[in-house]
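User: Good morning. I'm curious how 2-acetamido-2-deoxy-beta-D-glucopyranose would be positioned relative to this chain. Could you predict the structure with it bound?
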Amino acid sequence: MRFSSLSTVLALGALNAVASPTRPELAPRATPTVYLCGDSTMAKNGANDGDTDGWGQYFGTYSTVSVVNKAIGGRSARSYWNEGRFSDVASVVQSGDIVVIEFGHNDGGSPESNDNGRSDCPGAGTETCISDSTGETVYTFVFYVIQAAKLMTAKGATVILSSQTPNNLWETGSFSSAPPRFVGYQLTAQKALGTGVYFVDHYQAVANTYQKLGNSATNALYPNDHTHTSPEGASLSAQAFTQAIYQKLNGTTSLSDYIVSNPPTVY
Ligand SMILES: *[C@@H]1O[C@H](CO)[C@@H](O)[C@H](O)[C@H]1NC(C)=O
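Assistant: Good morning! Here's the predicted structure, ligand included:
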């Protein structure tokens, strides 16, 4: 259909000296760019220790969009916000693009006791804290994520709030998968935002993958610590994310149409 109508239009164009303006059916299909905002578990080269990698750029293998990995090690939702990194992404995002936001690994602790510049104020709403090291007002994880998502949707982008990856769930030799609070906080933020903002439980997808892999194979993915994986682990994390998006684990997302055909099944 598409090709025959294309050749018909081309043939008509060839008969006319002046081509008519591009017809809608001839316009190249707009392919969005996906921007990834996250921490070392998503960043290229992971913790930059030579052994570990983040999952972000591996996603490019399993999607039909161009992937721009803006993840950076050591960041929390708060510090990514405070450093202006969400604004930097918002300044290049175009209407129709997709922004994935995934934090949690560096968001724990309290800004009121030896604040490290990364801890969010505890709570899932409009609670505020005062940093005991800088005196700044610190907001909750949910607050920072909501502000970040709004920057992106104001530019016409859609946003996927992705829950953080798990740590090594076989660390003790038996499987244990209680999600940290930041997993639920992403869903809380998504519900507060609504239209144009989606949720995917990347934590659950990777947990399911590890459960299927078993004890020794999962432990082998963690060369240094219980948070940062080998490149193989990063690739599995990307595949679990892909499967979750493809199978609509927590509902349809704006990435659902941009997955390669027959993506791998890892859980
Ligand atoms: C996402 O969906 C899966 C499958 O239904 C479910 O197990 C998981 O709890 C959901 N995540 C959240 C945070 O609700």
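The pocket of 2-acetamido-2-deoxy-beta-D-glucopyranose is lined by residues 183-184, 187, 201, 204, 249-250 (CB under 6 Å). The chain has two domains: 1-29, 31-258.
Let me know if you'd like a different ligand tried.
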